[in-house]
Design goal:
The chain is α+β, with helices and mostly antiparallel strands. It is 19% helix and 24% strand. Strand 4 and strand 5 form a beta hairpin.
């Protein structure tokens, strides 16, 4: 494995949110200039509580418990840096975990809502070819567009978005990234080293603003 890189974030393309979501809430976790050198913090906002009626009304079914919550990682520009922020998606318990992860990643690869103050470093047109999870971790296959455009800060930003979104349910999971079926080893013309697999801790230890 080659030496890892330290890069700076930048702000590329704004992209549209898609996917079958049942609820999209807002939450933010901020990424300060020195945070990744010490400890990157991505705080997860608590989902809105499910309020149940105190009275039992005949013929009205009980509300469905919403128990699967994932975070979609976007970028938010500040005066001196770029924050990594998260919007939450809440799914019914009946939705398969694999579908939850797939929907979260497809949402990430699309544009943020038009009225959103956030943006993304992931190039427009990037597609999720496949996603699976096994004992080794989470396996992603992305289209070639993921590697196009931008400098080292842009590449670092999009890598963070993918890793943090994919691991929002299990923050200790390892992420394996392929592009068109081939392991992603370098990202961008400046040759950012992408170690396989990569965890949140790996990212915090080897990439800085």
């Amino acid at each position: 494995m080659q030496d890892r890189n330290k890069n700076r974030f930048s702000l590329p393309v704004v992209a549209a949110i898609t996917g079958a979501i049942l609820a999209l809430g807002g939450g933010a976790a901020w990424w300060a200039k020195s945070a990744l050198e010490q400890k990157a913090l991505v705080t997860q906002p608590n989902p809105a509580p499910i309020v149940e009626s105190e009275l039992e009304v005949p013929g009205i079914p009980e509300p469905i418990t919403q128990q699967q919550v994932v975070e979609i990682s976007w970028l938010n520009p500040t005066d001196q840096s770029i924050e990594l922020v998260s919007s939450t998606m809440t799914f019914q318990k009946s939705i398969r975990p694999e579908r939850v992860l797939e929907t979260a990643l497809e949402t990430l690869l699309a544009r943020p809502p038009k009225d959103s103050p956030y943006t993304t470093a992931i190039p427009q047109g990037t597609q999720l070819i496949s996603v699976s999870k096994d004992q080794k971790g989470i396996h992603l296959d992305l289209s070639q567009e993921f590697t196009s455009g931008g400098g080292s800060a842009s590449m670092t930003s999009r890598l963070a978005q993918v890793i943090y979104t994919a691991t929002s349910v299990d923050r200790n999971s390892a992420v394996w990234i392929n592009v068109e079926g081939q392991p992603l080893e370098h990202l961008g013309q400046e040759g950012i080293i992408v170690n396989q697999p990569m965890t949140r801790q790996d990212f915090k230890d080897n990439f800085t603003l």
